[in-house]
Amino acid sequence: KIVETLLQSLYVLEFRDFPLCAVAWWQYRSGANTGGNVMASIQTGDRGAAPSASSSSPAADAKKRRAKPVLLNRLEGCTSTVNAAVAIPQEDAVISVSEDSTIRVWLKRDSGDYWPSICHACPCPASCIDYDGTSKRLFVGIDTGTIMEFLLADDLNRMTPKRSYSAHMSRVTDLSAALDLSWLLSVGRDKYFQWHCTDTGRRLGGFKSDAWCTAVQLDAATKYVFVADYAGQINVLKLEDQSLSHVTALKGHSGSIRSLTWDPDNRLLFSGSFDESIVVWDIGSQKGTALELHGHAGKVRGLSYIPHAKKLFSGGDDAMLIVWDMTADRKETPEWKESSTCERCGSAFFWNLKEMWQTKQLAVNRQHHCRRCGKAVCDACSSTTTPIPPLGFEMLVRVCNDCYREMPESEKTSRAQFFEMKHRVAHLHVDLSKRRLVTCGFDNAIKIWDIKSLLDTPSA
Question: What angle do CA 359, 362, 366 make, to 5 degrees?
């Protein structure tokens, strides 16, 4: 019966997520789930590692397992990649920009389907967007480096061009409108960060990075701006009146950074990268603390932090949505140590000619590193793999045999939830007014998800 259930699960998942079935089988054998709960565990997409004793009640655990995004609508009509899409607060409407050079405003009709009420043709592909629901001002960046500003009508059936900003010399990659400060912040492939006044359209300042700029994030309280680039670096800038100064540079990614989001309460900066990782920068403590989150199997392209729920939503090329519990205890990953011999058994690595000459033995050992302690170890001393959620590793990673034996079961319990989105996510946006998630991707489609259960579920 269990084998039949697992085969049915594989059919439901279209063979895309076999590890979930393995987790469910492990849970069944360990007595954590009954046969009826195996299927529920798989369908919720929960990739939690080995279960352990928890202080949460069984009712809370059951509610957490049932929580998942529910697909409400799929919007189709764009003829090329949808670069970004945002939900209009308090409305059943979505604004999208696409590589097919269109800006579309999608309204929900009486039939329940979404159809464009506006389809504005741009002179070139539209790359990024920001919308202010209070003033109904829309900002769109395009391939030529221009930022176009529009004013949407109250019925969302018309938009009027208001101003055009000649901000960059090439594609605008990201922008942020801080209308309370009358600021428009933008970054582009010309390696520049640009700062404009939204009242006059005048340029207030700029900063040149060493590589393409890819994302921008503002801390409105302190007026610090974070500018990410293609080299994996984040430049921290301070804006004061009409002056700009460079504060420092944050380095932690090995690939291009594609998205940034901000936690205003704890003053945490989140960065998602093409190196498949997310880094949590503790800006508020000023101690240089950086936590890593590893769960995606592809480039991380979209991030959104929900302050009241203390959860981070992330999506990317692996077509997965990961919901990270940011109330969980986490620690920095250890620095990798370098050694010519295994720090557990003392055997030489293959490049240690001196040790091989002294011992008269040929060494064929490769150097590995334990993700838990950071020690350099040989293959025989690191033959085990396990997730380490407190260090941000939600997938199986190599650990030394000693660490594996020392690890309590509670250290293997997942701090995140995994859900299949069925399309590669190029951008995601969370609308808290109606508690919905908007994702768009490389399949030319936009998806609207109900995430009430995810936001209402208490964190661990």
Answer: 110
Q: How far is CA 368 from CA 343, 371, 373, in A?
A: 11, 9, 12
- Is the Cβ–Cβ distance between 285 and 291 less than 8 Å? no
DSSP state of 337: P
Residues in the chain: 460
Question: Helix (H, G, I), strand (E, B), or coil: what is residue 301?
Answer: strand
How crowded is residue 61: how many other Cβ atoms within 10 Å of its Cβ? Answer: 13
- Is residue 95 within 8 Å of 101, Cβ to Cβ? no
**Rounded alpha-carbon distances, angstroms, from residue 210 to 234, 254, 403:** 11, 15, 41
Cα 101 to Cα 118, 124, 157, 260, distances in angstroms: 13, 5, 19, 25
CB 101 within 8 A of CB 125: yes
Calculate ∠ Cα 17-21-23, nearest 5°. 110
pLDDT in tens, 205-229: 999 999 999 999 999 999 999 999 9
Judge whether 363 and 357 are in contact, CB under 8 Å: no
Check residue 310 and give left, alpha or beta (phi > 0: left; psi -120 to 50: alpha). Answer: left
Q: Two tokens at 89? A: 């607060």
Sheet holding 183-188: strands in order across? 172-178, 183-188, 192-197, 203-208
Question: What does pTM read for this prediction?
Answer: 0.83
Strand partners, 341: 348
Residues in the chain where the model's pLDDT stays below 50: 8-55
Q: In b/e form, how buried is each residue of 282-309, taking b as 16+ CB within 10 angstroms?
A: bbbeeeeebbbbbbbeebbbbbbbbeeb
Compute φ and ψ for 308, nearest 5 degrees: -70, -30
CB contact burial 25-36 (16+ within 10 A = b; e otherwise): bebbeeebbeee
C-alpha span between 58 and 132 (Å, rounded): 42
Minimal CA–CA distance to 457: which of 69, 73, 89, 90?
A: 69
Q: Note whether 104 and 98 are within 8 A (CB).
A: yes
